[in-house]
């Protein structure tokens, strides 16, 4: 099981929207049941990253993240989304 931490400024709105897009992406690519997504604020992400396999955030990467990091901004703006999706799928291919 791959544990994905999805963070935004407050841990409520933006992270929830991006989490839905990541979930659809992963399910559509055969990873159903192989991941768990938890949302949180970026302030909480540093401490929680030690128990995560991947952090995706809609903010700038803070110092102290203890696992791989992917920017979630393309899932909001659409700019660079294909590249971000490829990063997520590549990570899953290596870790699921």
TrEMBL record:
Residues spanning the membrane: none
Biological process (GO), any one: phosphoenolpyruvate-dependent sugar phosphotransferase system
Q: What is the lineage of its organism?
A: Bacteria, Bacillati, Actinomycetota, Coriobacteriia, Coriobacteriales
Q: Where is the PTS EIIB type-2 domain?
A: 2-96
Q: Known Gene3D superfamilies for this protein?
A: 3.40.50.2300
Q: Name one GO molecular function term.
A: protein-N(PI)-phosphohistidine-sugar phosphotransferase activity
Record keyword Transferase present: yes
The name under which this protein is listed is PTS system IIB component, Gat family
Q: Which domain of life is it from?
A: Bacteria
The record's listing under Pfam families reads: PTS_IIB
UniProt keyword annotation of Transferase present: yes
The organism is: Parafannyhessea umbonata
Q: Which UniProt keywords apply?
A: Transferase
């Amino acid at each position: 099981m791959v544990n994905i931490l999805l963070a935004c400024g407050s841990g409520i709105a933006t992270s929830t929207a991006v989490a839905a897009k990541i979930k659809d992406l992963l399910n559509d690519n055969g990873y159903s049941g192989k991941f768990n997504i938890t949302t949180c604020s970026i302030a909480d992400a540093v401490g929680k990253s030690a128990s995560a396999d991947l952090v995706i955030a809609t903010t700038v990467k803070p110092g102290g993240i203890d696992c791989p990091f992917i920017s979630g901004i393309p899932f909001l703006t659409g700019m660079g989304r294909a590249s971000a999706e490829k990063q997520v799928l590549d990570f899953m291919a290596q870790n699921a």
